[in-house]
Amino acid sequence: MTAAERVQVVDGPEELAEAAARAAVADLEAAVEAHGTATWVLTGGGTPGAAYRRLAAHDLRAGVEWDRVRVAMGDERCVPAGHPESNWGQAAAALLDHVPVPGHHLLRPQGELGAEAAADAYQAALAALPATPGGAPRLEVVWLGVGEDGHCLSLFPGRPELEVADRLVVPVHDSPKPPPDRISLTLAALAGTERLLVLAAGLGKADPVARARAGDDRLPLTRAVAAVRSAGGSVTWLLDRAAA
Ligand code: 6PG
Fold this sequence. Notes:
Layout: E1 5-10, H1 13-35, E2 38-42, H2 49-55, H3 58-61, E3 69-73, E4 75-77, H4 87-94, H5 115-127, E5 139-144, E6 169-172, E7 182-185, E8 193-200, H6 206-213, H7 220-230, E9 234-240
Parallel strand pairs: 1-9, 2-3, 2-5, 5-8, 8-9
Antiparallel strand pairs: 4-7, 6-7
């Protein structure tokens, strides 16, 4: 039985933030109900910021048992902690600094160590998470953004990191999207995903979204969605009208 695949189209960025924040509450609570804890892998980039801020507002924040939630990041730039280009720093300012996730549940990538050392450290952090029968970390909730070239995480079309199957986290250099040095979860790391939410807003995402939904395997996002589906995870596309 293939798990659910849903497409939710909303008017614009504000409605996207509202719908994404509400999806996080529902998904995190379902996951905590099922397993006692939930690991939420955030996405970087600009799209999710308003959703993180909306979730930090009391009316929604109160709906999550934050002490049962672990937070990770799908990819991170190798910049100093607190640098404006840090995905974690942006998520912390918008949400993580405003909710009571226990410190040991905040799985911050240490991008400041440089790509190789940061990837090794994050590999160990993810490997320590509860695992699925297949051995992949159980990721109850994963958010992914998408680039105009169809990249997701820091996995870019045609790049070797896409094919790495024996690691959960890889270093990335010369990223086509600046900053150049990053770490990224691999497609293999997604094999234990239970609920994937793909967020896309704006005209520039209409083409990659359409190609990914049509199964164009040249796009990393297509392969990420396939990894989740083959693991029995659910996939929800949350799009604004321009991206749909
Ligand atoms: C990053 C992100 C990246 C992002 C997409 C979409 O580190 O840049 O993780 O994968 O999700 O590039 O970015 P926008 O939301 O800014 O369009």
